[in-house]
Amino acid sequence: MRKGHFDLVKGIWERTDGIKLTIGDTEDEFGSYLKRNKGMSFICKDGRIIVGTILCGHDGRRGFIYHLAVHKDYRRRKIADKLIKLSLKQLRTHGLKRCMLMADNINESAKSFWTKMKWRKRDDLQMFSIDL
Length: 132
Ligand SMILES: CC(C)(COP(=O)(O)OP(=O)(O)OC[C@H]1O[C@@H](n2cnc3c(N)ncnc32)[C@H](O)[C@@H]1OP(=O)(O)O)[C@@H](O)C(=O)NCCC(=O)NCCS
Prior knowledge:
The chain is α+β, with helices and mostly antiparallel strands. The protein contains four helices and four strands, in the order ααβββαβα. The protein has a single domain (3-116), classed as 3-Layer(aba) Sandwich (Aminopeptidase), CATH 3.40.630.30. Strands 1-2-3-4 form a four-stranded mixed beta sheet, sandwiched between helices. The protein is globular. The two termini are 27 Å apart. The chain binds coenzyme A. Coenzyme A binds next to β3, α3 and α4.
């Protein structure tokens, strides 16, 4: 994924239920994230159309995945599986031992997907945040 993909990538995020655009989703912030986490985020293309995305990075201690999205017409073809594998491989290469992600409480489909993919649902944690 490159900064120049921003408009197309944002388009798929806007059209995907379960993806919430938020702080960090401007073109500049997107570019900075990719620069800071080089080679860890990926797109899947069919010709010139972007049909899958994953944003991935780390803070030196934990890896994080955001905005995993696959176009409705391309689902259940292991595109997400492949995108996740590519990102996790990069995290391992950088020495990371664990990757986290946040899923919206009401996104039942995401919950069943991550469970199916054998990710552990962390009932022992709660998310807190503050805007800067
Ligand atoms: C969740 C999502 C990324 C899955 O993409 P996908 O390309 O269809 O997934 P894959 O084909 O790689 O699926 C991998 C496995 O999970 C299964 N799977 C896919 N979606 C699933 C779901 N919603 N619930 C349970 N299992 C699911 C597949 O059948 C496959 O299983 P298999 O290995 O036994 O064949 C896609 O449905 C999507 O974009 N959803 C909306 C956005 C979203 O919620 N993203 C997650 C935000 S946290």
